[in-house]
Amino acid sequence: MIERELTVTNRLGLHARATAKLVQVLAAFRSSVTLTAKGREINAKSIMGVMLLAAGQGTPVKLRVEGEDEIAAADAVIDLFDRRFDEDS
């Protein structure tokens, strides 16, 4: 199991476009992926779940990945957060 603390740094936070990108990236992996923020834990492969986090810029998020391809899945999520969901220049 991999756990990592992340921070939402893109200007608009986890809005619809960023959430769709996250879910799309995770669709390629078999591992279970959860995000926890503001006292809620959600399935990161669920658009509705991620949207319910209402995680704006600066929100700390805990990533937990467990499964056969957990390293690659965690790396993909971390990279997406690091790239600010390709939204900010």
Q: Count of DSSP helices?
A: 3
Report helical residue fraction. 25-40%
* Overall 3D shape: globular
What is the residue-averaged pLDDT? 95
| Approximate strand percentage | 25-35%
Question: What is the succession of H and E elements?
Answer: EHEEHEH
Rounded radius of gyration (Å): 12 Å
Class from helix and strand fractions: alpha+beta
Keywords: Cytoplasm, Phosphotransferase system
Main location: cytoplasm
Organism: Lysobacter niastensis
Protein name: Phosphocarrier protein
Structure description:
The chain is of the alpha+beta class. Helices cover 34% and strands 26% of the residues. It has helices at residues 16-26, 47-52, 70-82; strands spanning 2-7, 32-37, 40-43, 60-66. The model has no long low-confidence stretch (mean pLDDT 95). The protein is built from three helices and four strands. A four-stranded antiparallel sheet has the order 1-4-2-3.
Task: Give a quick set of tags describing it.
four-stranded antiparallel beta sheet, 89 residues, alpha+beta, 4 strands
Element layout with pairings:
Blueprint: E1 2-7, H1 16-26, E2 32-37, E3 40-43, H2 47-52, E4 60-66, H3 70-82
Keywords: Cytoplasm, Phosphotransferase system
Pfam families: PTS-HPr (PF00381)
Family: Belongs to the HPr family.
Structure in a nutshell:
The chain has 89 residues and is α+β, with helices and mostly antiparallel strands. It is built from 3 helices and 4 strands.
